[in-house]
Design a protein that fits this description.
The longest helix has 13 residues. Strand 1 and strand 2 form a beta hairpin. By secondary structure, this protein is of the alpha/beta class. The structure holds nicotinamide-adenine-dinucleotide (NAD), ligand AHE and zinc ion. The site of ligand AHE has 11 residues, from loops.
Length: 369
């Protein structure tokens, strides 16, 4: 199968739009025609070379939606024509992690996924005979892509694929982090660091959870209008203060917030996010992804005195069981997605989508094949 794709040949270079070869699905695999994909900061992070799991050359992209084209031997839960969202966090339902009831981090395909290959250790992508790596088990920057059956959520065929593609990462991650990881309760105070798609989805989740105060923090004040639309009640630009930002938030909240969320990937901000939490009970959730070699630090006394540091991957959401419900909530008007889409473009303009994200001029650009 020939497919339009964007190839990341090496770190730090723009993607090349090219026609690639995609092999059909092997046993337990599914070929999907991606109809729409968007660019998440994690794609830019990996392309920058900062990802310890970055493999090149690769077909990046992990936030997409499409239609099943062909299924491999033994695939029973999907058939051609089904509408699907690719999952970078699979759900096999059978591994130790899935059975634990404690995490969404399925282990069934994660080891090979991190090496940029399918579970049998090989790639389905090539260009002029040269093998290309898969990415996060999804590779949505190819019109035709191949995934393990366990890495696809079947969703309502009524839902617009160019909107629900955002449930493949950004929107689900932010809302899930509030609902599953922090379990924000009505009346709680919340601080959100970083107002990209992830931070804005956290704000939407905090409003759904009936938080009493939602403090939106970003160094780019252009993000504040949208944050207000999603439910933020206060706005703080750290550049307007000489005090450390954790002190500013502690002063604003009579000792600190109940929950904070780091949605940037900056280890210094992660420390601030922890330290702006209330003594005795405040919880800080790390969502942002930091580069190879970076580490977090704080005085252990911050934890001894009751603050809690947690992390969240894909919002703790089990994709195959829970994403269909997210899609239904969107269709029933209970979940906002359209507001995250700041630009729509043809797939071929993908490098421009990366530039807009870096320039702070987009929340999500949806690319149409
Ligand atoms: P984005 O680039 O759209 O948004 C980041 C925001 O942070 C921007 O608005 C930027 O102005 C702001 N910012 C940068 N430095 C800041 C600072 N020092 N103080 C305050 N604000 C600052 O990115 P995104 O797509 O929303 O992704 C956010 C982070 O979440 C990335 O690190 C991404 O890799 C990560 N992520 C993690 C998961 C997960 O499952 N854990 C899922 C998706 C994305
Ligand atoms: N590969 C990196 C870490 C990247 C990372 O943390 N990824 C997040 C999803 S970001 C989506 O935009 C995640 O869920 N990680 C859990 C997992 O299993 O990958 C590294 O540091 O090696
Ligand atoms: Zn992402």
């Amino acid at each position: 199968m020939k497919s339009r794709a964007a190839i990341a040949w090496e770190a730090g270079k723009p993607l090349e739009i090219a026609e690639i070869d995609v092999e059909g699905p092997k046993a337990g695999e599914v070929m999907v025609q991606i109809k729409a994909t968007s660019v998440c900061h994690t794609d830019a992070f990996t392309l920058s070379g900062a990802d310890p799991e970055g493999n090149f050359p690769a077909v990046l992209g992990h936030e997409g939606a499409g239609v099943v084209q062909e299924v491999g031997e033994g695939v029973t839960s999907l058939k051609p024509g089904d509408h699907v969202i690719p999952l970078y966090t699979a759900e096999c339902g059978q591994c130790k992690f899935c059975l634990s009831g404690k995490t969404n981090l399925c282990s069934s395909v994660r080891a090979t996924q991190g090496k940029g290959v399918m579970p049998d250790g090989t790639s389905r992508f090539s260009k002029d005979g040269q093998s290309l790596h898969h990415y996060m088990g999804c590779s949505t920057f190819s019109e035709y892509t191949v995934l393990p059956e366990v890495s696809l959520a079947k969703v309502s065929p009524e839902a617009p694929l160019d909107k629900i593609c955002l449930l493949g990462c950004g929107v689900t991650t932010g809302i899930g982090a509030v609902m599953n990881t922090a379990k924000v309760e009505p009346g709680a105070t919340v601080a959100v660091f970083g107002l990209g798609a992830i931070g804005l989805a956290v704000i939407q989740g905090a409003q759904m959870a009936k938080a009493s105060r939602i403090i939106a923090i970003d160094v780019n004040p252009d993000k504040f209008d949208l944050a207000r639309q999603f439910g933020a009640t206060e706005f703080v630009n750290p550049k307007d203060y000489s005090d450390p930002i954790q002190q500013v938030i502690v002063d604003l909240t009579d000792g600190g917030v109940d929950y904070s969320f780091e949605c940037i990937g900056n280890v210094n901000v992660m420390r601030s996010a922890l330290e702006c939490c209330h003594k005795g009970w405040g919880e800080s959730i790390i969502i942002g992804v930091a580069g190879a070699g970076e580490e977090i630090s704080t005085r252990p006394f911050q934890l001894v005195t009751g603050r809690v540091w947690k992390g969240s991957a894909f919002g703790g959401v089990k994709g195959r069981s829970e994403l269909p419900g997210y899609v239904d909530d969107y269709m029933n008007g209970k979940l906002k997605i359209d507001e995250f889409v700041t630009q729509d473009m043809a797939f071929e303009e993908i490098n421009e989508a990366f530039e807009l994200l870096h320039a702070g001029k987009s929340i999500r650009t949806v690319l149409h094949y």
